[in-house]
Specification:
Layout (H helix, E strand, L loop, with lengths): L18 E13 L4 E12 L3 E7 L4 E7 L7 E4 L2 E10 L4 E10 L4 E3 L3 E8 L2 E5 L19 E10 L3 E4 L2 E8 L2 E12 L6 E4 L2 E5 L7 E5 L4 H8 L2 H12 L7 E6 L7 E3 L2 E5 L7 H12 L7 E3 L6 H17 L5 H13 L18 H18 L1 H15 L2 E3 L1 H12 L4 H8 L9
Parallel strand pairs: 1-11, 17-18, 18-20, 21-22
Antiparallel strand pairs: 1-2, 2-7, 3-6, 4-7, 5-6, 8-9, 9-10, 11-14, 12-15, 13-14, 16-17, 19-20
Amino acid sequence: MPHLPTADPYLPHHGDPSWHAVHYDLDLEYDLVGNRLSGTAVITVEALTDLDRLVLDLAHLQVKKVTVDGRQPAKHAHRQHRLVVSLRDRIRAGERATVTVKYAGKPHPLVLRHHGDAGWEELTDGVIVAGQPHGAPTWFPCNDRADDKAAYTISVSTAANYTVVANGTLVRRTRHGSGETWTYQQVEPMPPYLATVQIGRYALIELDSAGRVPIHAAVPDSARADFDASFGRQGEMMACFERLFGPYPFPAYTVVVTDDELEIPLESQSLSTFGRNFLTGEWEQVRLVAHELAHQWFGNAVTMRRLQDIWLHEGFACYAEWLWAEDGGYRSADAWAAHHHARLDGLRKDLLLADPGPDLMFDDRVYKRGALTLHALRGELGDDAFFGLLRTWVARYAGGSADTADFEALAAEVAGRPLTGLFDAWLRRKELPALT
């Protein structure tokens, strides 16, 4: 197979920077008993350069047929997790085409050396999809780049006694014999790694939103009694973050609680997934409820352009934990900043926040030092300017991608002066600055 592209050095052999996905229409059938997935993906592609081939990412599943613009089957080669489609007619830069891929197989997570496993995974009785950062190709062919955002229609047919939750708005639910089809539309642009499907024996409930945003939950009946311990203040949390960050960027928010225990929550656009072990109501669980909600602004509405800028997601969501702690009556943001600064001061000083490397991009120091960077910036700007900066950041870049340089430029614009010294100290030096 000829040389294949890599879109981001943090994720080798994934993504193709020569084309952009405009829309994914995914029609899936899933057999829970046999763990068998059959799919048809209709992808509207836009050429960014002149193309004589398309390279997509698809792992573990077998390609049955590929067509381009509805014509005769296109020549293709599929090896490991790269699908190369040879084009009979070149697609010129700026032109669009429709690629249809029929595929099937037994989906399972994709394991990478730097990032562990991610993707479609069986539960005891259901399915979770953990996409970050490389799991999307385990269930649909895609351009697996964090900066390639598209609209989605996701339709899943499975056994009738299961609930299917996916990104966006449920637009149709159809019963047919012993099965049921659930169709969701995600209109707001979304990168592949934030796409998800959750399947389980869930009851769908609506939470008190304390505001304009509908908040839903998919919860096993056996977990209903414990749900409010961690999620009872979800509406207050939403109202707090809307006040600080600006309007919630999607039509609704959904929380899924699996009947299995999960090591960590799963981030995805317009919904978050937790294991039932997160229902204790202790701060360690509640802070992650805040963390995942905050990602809807920082990570989902505004997405990093490059994986090295992961602090723009995790540092912001971690700082949101401290903001909710203060607003919710737990502990002040100042106290959390002092606590974690002292803790980081006792750890290795070998991390550059602006470029941590693929091995360290999910290191806890990225989360905490990122949050401390924002706390230092807040101290420099004052509350009015700082929270105005966060609201402007979301408003300006929502639906698109941004990087650290964009954030620094906006911070300088809001401050009315360069802030190079502050950002150099926190982002581009390994030593831990003093927290003033």
